[in-house]
Amino acid sequence: MRNILSILVLASLLISCGGNDRGQLIGVKGKKWNPEKPFGMVLVQGGAFIMGKSDYDIAGLNNAPTKTVTVPSFYMDETEVTNSEYRQFVQWVRDSTIRQKLAEAAELAGNVQGGGGRNNQTIGDFAFKNAADQDAGNLTPFQEFSKHYDPMNQKINWDAEIIWNQEEYPDADYVYVMDEFYLPNEQSYNGERMMDVTKFAYSLKTMDVEAAARESGNRTNFIEESEVLVYPDTTVWIKDFHYSYNEPLHNDYFSHAAYDNYPVVGVNWNQAKAFSDWRTQYLNSFRKSKGLEHANFFRLPTEAEWEYAARGGLESGTYPWGGPYAKDDRACFLANFKPLRGDYAADEALYTVEADSYQPNDFGLYNMSGNVSEWVGTSYEPDSYEYMSSMSPNVNNKKNKRKVVRGGSWKDVSYFLQVSSRDYEYADSARSYIGFRTVQDFLGNNLDLRNK
């Protein structure tokens, strides 16, 4: 009887440990995953191509010799990131910063319930989400016992709408917080109450994965956190051009709805990286709330990825449309650039144009040449083609502040529109002719799912 009981106990243990796998190795299944093309992006299927100048290097820079390289599949923005899209990032940072300050003020005032002020509101309506629970001692087991819980990292309240109208501010505490985000009257002009955009910074946390993988030690040594001011530098329209009248663009290019679909400019390399990080966090926050597998991160393309995408599958073409000319058979210009000496408008565009102007290349990508030059995630090294890998190459030296820009812009001659031409700018510099677009790695290698 004792032997029979032992066998039954052993059998029950095996059943409880193995489930329904019948003792077979079946693996551990992750969450259900279906590749989903990000909104506004196209899939660029990976492959090999000849990178560099296959024709005469008219500038004689000798910084782009031909080299056969291979890149994996990735998604890429159809257009350069627009003012409207970048403004979503800026407003999210602005609103989260203001809500954080309002919640802190509510905590100091001891007002976490809300109600009772003007329009039956107080600053307490903006209190941290979990403030009332903590005050009542209703901590979850995670909050009470976990070493990963930070009591200072409280959830911002996104439910209450920010009150922008001064006449509707609910109480004195609210007034003090909001006034902090506006310039004093002596610094405002044109009859407008202007916000102090230097108050809005994004906390960018990055890890040097390559260095961490090659060296031993605590990974915290390879993690950096920095605050990046997010508002574009609108003064570039003035600073880039001496003895030129560009005040209308300085005043309205980023903020006015008329320019919503134009490429954002005045954004430096660090700001482009911060935008990419925010876009990743923003998407994955939604996916997490729905119990979905996280999506891969958005980032700037490598120089090789950019050139491969710009070529659109045309081997050794001079431009995204092939070439060798910048006009079609009806003598129409195929991109926005400086076609003639001093005549910027010969291509029917004086400055930038809408991001989806002109015809896309064979990958469905707009303005890979012209309109604005584009930041990529690669450091500029004149001889990098000589030593970079032939498989998914990228050279990004943290100490080198010169970052590659590609594609040429509205103020450049046709040489810089060539898909193989390389140029650079310093990472902390913003220009009226440099924008960016982002990419996202394609996860997996299932050909049947690629076009879904």
Automatic annotation (TrEMBL):
Protein name: Gliding motility lipoprotein GldK
Record's keyword annotation contains Oxidoreductase: no
Pfam families: FGE-sulfatase (PF03781)
UniProt cross-references to NCBIfam families, sorted A to Z: GldK
Classification via InterPro entries: CTDL_fold (IPR016187), Glid_motil-assoc_lipo_GldK (IPR019866), Sulfatase_Mod_Factor_Kinase (IPR051043), SUMF_dom (IPR005532), SUMF_sf (IPR042095)
Keyword Lipoprotein carried by entry: yes
A GO MF term: formylglycine-generating oxidase activity
Keywords from the named record: Lipoprotein
Residues of the Sulfatase-modifying factor enzyme-like domain: 40-439
SUPFAM superfamilies: C-type lectin-like (SSF56436)
